[in-house]
Structures are given as structure tokens and as C-alpha cells.
Specification:
The chain has 636 residues and is an alpha/beta fold. Helix content is 31%, strand content 23%. The chain is built from 18 helices and 32 strands. It binds coenzyme A and adenosine monophosphate.
Length: 636
């Protein structure tokens, strides 16, 4: 076992030497001579003159090394009662033929394609087929509504959209194809083709001129070989919530990302080639991109593709069944999934039905992990439970207890230590470093290590303004936190308008825009409050225009429906309260943080800038009439 301090210090002291060595674990077409250089947008380019192909590294390379018969994907779908094993050889067949089909449709290196699909193997094939051609994919999470999909279509201007007839949420059918048709009609940019995988579940597929049947396309196509791309060629664009109403397209490179992911499997997750690895997320999120698809396949693991929920598919034992059935060595999920299981099966009795001796580590991320959830998981699984912190922008962990380097004692509430390559600093508003246990902004000293965002798609100004200019010389993560006396870092939450609902990153600013557009509403505020199950949930407060004749109940119904229609079910926006006025500063700024703190019954100072303190009692009364406010520190 290595020593964490030595390993980490080397990555900070000599980044070029450290990462050059890590890059050697990949099979490059041309190994880079330029390891690190500054990029024109103020960021960094890693391995700029290197050439490679991600699909080759994830598939062909393993076959050439004699591992074609190893399982690449275990597909497990309790919602359709289907299970499948896909070997690396089968994966190459599917991916290279789909790539051939996409090529026939005119897709070539540098084009963009949107993938809007449920958790089925064809979603993974589509990602890898794009990567094989050098086509930049943008996967959109299925829980987003047509309007959100339309925003992404207009921003990344795909030539082709790849979708499926439908998804299944427990028992509910999600009509993907009609959503795509609606999104295209809303968008200004019109993709040339829509490729549809028919799941043959008896769902009607509306026909359009641009439709192409996935199976016919693949059947009639010749397989294609991987196309060589530069290390800095974008592999994908992944949209994530920002602090304005418009999501931003995080651009990921190829060579830096592949290097970082490959190294992370060994050092962060303690996973060796050939092991079974499971990230219970969705390909629509960064966790899905990095740890369902690219990292495990780069590392020649067998990855589990699970189309279900932690509960109700069919019950709270489903995770334990999957771990034991596929002999999962390392698993990754969000704390909210564990809270859902714990609520259904507090004693963990269902766990006892399965032999889980294969499991070595349980990783958690996506949102803050409360101590009760961490302790429950540790006690029930009897393995180290590792909270770790990262974001869409980083693409891979920034803080962790690096089990493949040196497992350190777990401190509940902390996301661990800086991961190799990340020089994490905590700073105050004034740009001065915070002391031990002093809360501040969590920053990363530049340069960022390989794998982190290259840019914001078509919006470099947003990249520099959002991440680089707030603290010159540092990457601004948007999270607050502190370091304790032993160097453990604690993340305390976002410092902006982003909330995490069931591990899903959402923008309250975007919801607020939709709420404000209701004709009866004069002004409003949307912010995240504590939720025992989902970590946070959005709450809206609205002041009516005078003379409006609408009941609070009807207004809530309409606004909830509007948010669901514009953003999608995933927003989980379920509550709007009518108030007489909102607390503001004397200059007229709504005090959203105060509203949130009152709801959460957190300690809050009364801002000296508030225009009228009597409003605090009014708000408390409205909250208590709706039973809002968690009992402090009480877990489920
Ligand atoms: N496609 C379409 N709709 C989706 C969807 C998808 N892929 N994912 C979620 N939705 C819908 C849900 O059906 C639900 O709709 P409803 O309001 O009609 O019931 C809504 O979006 C909210 O979903 P969710 O926040 O997931 O809540 P839930 O009550 O359905 O489930 C949990 C709660 C905790 C079981 C679930 O959130 C979960 O499994 N969380 C794990 C989180 C996770 O893996 N995060 C990934 C980041 S690491
Ligand atoms: P996303 O980009 O969707 O992965 O969301 C990233 C955000 O989720 C981070 O900026 C954090 O606010 C939050 N987050 C992720 N992991 C953790 C964690 N382990 N602890 C606390 N917050 C987390």
C-alpha cells in the first residue's frame, strides 16, 4: 500500500511528471509530447498533441489483449424483467455497427448528436458509437421535459438525436419519442434525423419524416473502425444547472478525461482490471458518463447497467440482489438512495437475504451525506463507506478517501482529502485562506488536473466568469466548506442558487423564472429546503398581484404543472405558498437564504440590511401552518 501524503504531494509538486506516468496506462495512437499547456480560455490543455480514440480504449484494446469474452456490461432491468450480459466482443459488434449506421446518416468527426434514452444498453452503444466516430455526444437525462431538451437542441445543434420508444419509471411509461418530437417542434435548430430504438413494449411511436429505425440502421450497416482524434477533441457536452435559467454545456476533452478516469479506478476506488463495478446512477448525469460507461470500460471492468430504483423495483432489497448476483466489488450510489432503502427497511432485514461478501467498498456522492445515513450503511454492509465529492465540471472525484492509495479512518460528515491533482484551498470572500475549521469557498488552485471541463459550449465567457474570474488563479467550485485540524475536508453546501434534490442538480433560478411567469404572480422566490428523503426539495413563495381572483390551492396546482411541463418531473417542485410580502434588503433584493434558514430552523443572523424585521414572524406563521421546518438534527 502507498502512502497518501507522498502520492498526493507528488501530483501537486510535479503535475506533468505525475500525469505523464498515468497517461502511459492508456494505448494512445500517438503518445503526447506536450503534457500540459495553457489554453486560450484561461484553462489548461492536457496532452494536446496526443492522439487516441475513446471507443478503441474502452473496447477494442481489451479484445486485442485477449479479453473479448469478458462481460463488459451486466444489464439488469427489474422494470421489464430483462437481464442480459454483453461481452466486450458483443459490445464491439453493436458499437461498430451503430457507428457505421450513424456515419451513413452523415455524422462525422466534430458533429454533435443528442442521446435521450433510458437506462438500456443501446444508450451505452450510442455514446460509444459517437466516440468511435469523433462525434461529440450530449446525453440528456430522461427526467427532463421537452422544453429543456429543446434548449439543449438549440445550444448544441445536433445533426442527429438518438432516442428510444419509451422509458419506464417503476410502472409509469415515459414517452421518449413524443417528447423528442415536441422538443424539435419547440427548437429553432432542426436535427436532420431521429434514430429510435423500439423497445417493443407495445408503446405507440408517432411517425415523422426524420425518423430512422435503430435496428434497421444497425442491420444494414458495415462496422467502422475507431477514428483517431486529438486529446483535446471534445468527447461530450453535458448540460448542468448553473446560476441562471439556462443550463450550461460542460465540454469534456478525450485524452485528459481518459487518463484521469483510468487512474481514478485504481487509486480512488481500489478497482483492478476484471473486477465488477456498479454505479447506480443514470447515463444522463456525470456519474453515469464517468462511472457507468467510460471509467469501468477503460479499466476493463464489468459495469452494471441497472434500470430500476433502489425501492419499489420490486422492493428495497433490489440493490443487495444486484450486488450479490453480479459479485460487485465496489458500488457507488447517492445517499438519497440509501435513505429510501432505510425508510422501507430500517433494520436492514432484506440485506440478510443475500451474500454480500463480494462487496469491498461502498461509495456515496452526489449530495451531502448525513451522518445517520453513513453510519447505517456502514453498520449494515460492514464495509468502509466512503463519501466523496465532485461535480459535473470535474468529471471525477476531487475529494475522497483514496482506498487504492491508503484507506484512512473515515470521519463521518467529511468527504475526505484532496484527490491527486487537486490542490484544494478554502478561502474567504476577501481571497485570504481560511483557518482550520473556518468555513469558506472551496477552490482548486490552477491548473486543474486532466479530465476537468475544457470550456462551456459556445460560451467561453460563461466559463471564465463562472469558474476562473471570481478568485484569480483558482477554480471556483460553487461549494462552501472547511478543513479540520487533520486535513479532512467538509463540504457544507452550494453557495449559489443550485440545489441537490435526490442527487439531481437543479437550478432554483430556473424554477423561479417559470413561477414568476404566472400571470397572477407579482413576485416570488424559489429556494431549497431540507427534505428527509431527497436531501433538499424546492419551495416556492409567491406574492399575488392585487385584484387576482385565484385560490392559493389552484395557483399552486397551475404553477406546479408549469414547472413540471417546462423543466420536467425531476424538478420535484411540489409546493408554492402564497404570502403577503417577501423579506428584502433595503435595496430590494429578496433574502432567499433567510427564507431557507427559517424553514430549516437553522441558526440565522438577522441581516442588518433587512428592510423590515417584522416580516420574519409572518413567514414563520406561514411555514408553521404548512408544517414546514425539520426538527433540528433529526434523521429518518
Ligand atoms: N425519466 C423520466 N422521469 C424520471 C426519471 C427518468 N429517468 N427519473 C426520475 N423521473 C421522475 C420520477 O418518476 C418522478 O416523477 P413523479 O413526480 O411523477 O413521481 C420525478 O422525476 C422525481 O424523481 P425522483 O427525484 O427520482 O424521486 P422519486 O420519488 O421517483 O424517487 C428516490 C426517489 C430516492 C428513490 C430516487 O430519487 C433515487 O433513486 N435516487 C437516487 C439518485 C441517484 O441515483 N442520483 C444520481 C446522481 S449520483
Ligand atoms: P453534479 O454536478 O450534478 O454532480 O452536482 C455537483 C454538486 O453536488 C456539488 O457541487 C455539490 O454541491 C454536490 N455534491 C456532490 N457530491 C457531494 C458530497 N459528497 N458532499 C456534498 N456535496 C456533494
Amino acid at each position: 500500500m502507498m502512502n497518501y501524503n507522498d502520492f498526493y504531494s507528488e501530483s501537486i509538486r510535479n503535475p506533468e511528471g505525475f500525469w505523464k506516468k498515468q497517461a502511459q496506462a492508456l494505448a494512445w495512437d500517438t503518445f503526447p509530447t506536450e503534457i500540459l499547456k495553457s489554453a486560450p480560455n484561461g484553462g489548461s490543455h492536457w496532452f494536446a498533441d496526443g492522439k487516441l480514440n475513446m471507443s478503441y480504449l474502452c473496447i477494442d484494446r481489451h479484445i486485442e489483449a485477449g479479453h473479448g469474452d469478458q462481460v463488459a456490461i451486466y444489464y439488469d432491468s427489474p422494470v421489464t424483467n430483462v437481464k442480459a450480459t454483453i461481452t466486450y466482443l458483443e459490445l464491439r459488434e453493436e458499437v461498430s455497427k451503430l457507428a457505421g449506421g450513424l456515419k451513413k446518416l452523415g455524422l462525422e468527426k466534430g458533429d454533435t448528436a443528442i442521446i435521450y434514452m433510458p437506462m438500456i444498453p443501446q444508450a451505452v452503444y450510442a455514446m460509444l458509437a459517437c466516440a468511435r466516430l469523433g462525434v461529440i455526444h450530449s446525453v440528456v437525462f430522461g427526467g427532463f421535459a421537452p422544453h429543456e431538451l429543446a434548449i439543449r437542441i438549440d445550444d448544441c445543434e445536433p445533426k442527429v438525436i438518438i432516442t428510444a420508444s419509451n422509458g419506464i419509471e417503476i410502472e409509469k411509461i415515459i414517452p421518449y419519442k413524443p417528447f423528442v418530437d415536441e422538443a424539435i417542434s419547440l427548437a429553432k435548430h432542426k436535427p436532420e434525423r431521429v434514430v429510435i430504438f423500439d423497445r417493443k413494449l407495445g408503446v405507440d411511436i408517432p411517425q415523422r419524416n426524420y425518423d430512422v429505425d435503430y435496428e434497421t440502421l444497425v442491420k444494414d450497416s458495415e462496422p467502422v473502425d475507431p477514428v483517431q482524434v486529438a486529446a483535446t477533441h471534445p468527447l461530450y457536452i453535458l448540460y448542468t444547472s448553473g446560476t441562471t435559467g439556462t443550463p450550461k454545456g460542460i465540454v469534456r476533452d478525450t485524452g485528459g478525461y481518459a487518463t484521469a478516469l483510468k487512474a481514478s479506478m485504481k487509486y480512488v476506488y481500489g478497482v483492478e482490471e476484471g473486477d465488477v463495478y456498479w454505479a447506480a446512477s443514470d447515463v444522463g448525469w456525470v456519474v453515469g458518463h464517468s462511472y457507468i460507461v467510460y471509467a469501468p470500460l477503460l479499466n476493463r471492468n464489468s459495469t452494471v447497467l441497472f434500470e430500476g430504483k433502489p425501492i419499489k423495483t420490486p422492493d428495497a432489497s433490489t440493490f443487495w440482489r444486484v450486488i450479490s448476483e453480479y459479485q460487485v466489488k465496489v458500488m457507488f450510489t447517492a445517499p438519497t438512495a440509501i435513505r429510501a432503502i432505510k425508510k422501507e427497511d430500517p433494520e436492514g432485514l432484506l440485506l440478510k437475504k443475500y451474500d454480500l461478501s463480494c462487496l469491498k467498498y461502498q461509495f456515496l456522492a452526489g449530495e451531502r451525506c448525513d451522518v445517520a445515513t453513513l453510519e447505517w450503511t456502514k453498520q449494515k454492509l460492514n464495509v468502509p463507506v466512503i463519501d466523496h465529492w465532485w461535480q459535473t465540471e470535474s468529471g471525477w472525484p476531487m475529494l475522497a478517501n483514496m482506498v487504492g492509495v491508503e484507506l484512512q479512518p473515515v470521519k463521518p460528515g467529511s468527504a475526505g482529502f484532496p484527490v491527486h491533482g487537486y490542490d484544494i484551498q478554502i478561502m474567504g470572500e476577501d481571497g485570504n485562506p481560511c483557518g482550520v475549521n473556518e468555513e469558506g469557498y472551496v477552490l482548486v488552485k490552477l491548473p486543474l488536473p486532466p479530465g476537468c471541463l475544457l470550456d462551456v459550449w459556445q460560451n467561453t465567457q460563461r466559463f471564465t466568469a463562472g469558474y476562473l474570474e471570481k478568485f484569480p488563479g483558482y477554480y471556483f467550485s460553487g461549494d462552501g466548506g472547511y478543513k479540520d485540524e487533520d486535513g479532512y475536508v467538509f463540504i457544507t453546501g452550494r453557495v449559489d442558487d443550485i440545489i441537490n434534490v435526490a442527487g439531481h442538480r437543479l437550478s432554483t433560478a430556473e424554477m423561479e423564472e417559470i413561477v414568476a411567469s404566472h400571470p397572477a404572480i407579482a413576485e416570488c422566490a424559489v429556494f431549497g429546503i431540507h427534505c428527509d428523503l431527497k436531501g433538499q426539495r424546492p419551495l416556492g413563495l409567491a406574492v399575488l398581484k392585487s385584484g387576482m381572483d385565484i385560490s392559493a390551492e389552484n395557483l399552486e396546482k397551475e404553477v406546479v404543472q408549469n414547472v413540471r411541463h417546462e423543466i420536467g418531473a425531476v424538478a420535484s417542485f411540489k409546493q408554492l405558498l402564497v404570502v403577503n410580502r417577501l423579506p428584502k434588503t433595503r435595496s430590494g433584493k429578496i433574502l432567499r437564504k433567510l427564507l431557507r434558514n427559517i424553514a430549516d430552523k437553522s441558526e440565522y443572523p438577522i441581516p442588518s440590511t433587512i428592510d423590515d424585521v417584522t416580516i420574519i414572524d409572518e413567514i414563520k406563521q406561514v411555514y408553521s401552518s404548512k408544517n414546514i421546518g425539520k426538527p433540528k438534527k433529526q434523521a429518518i
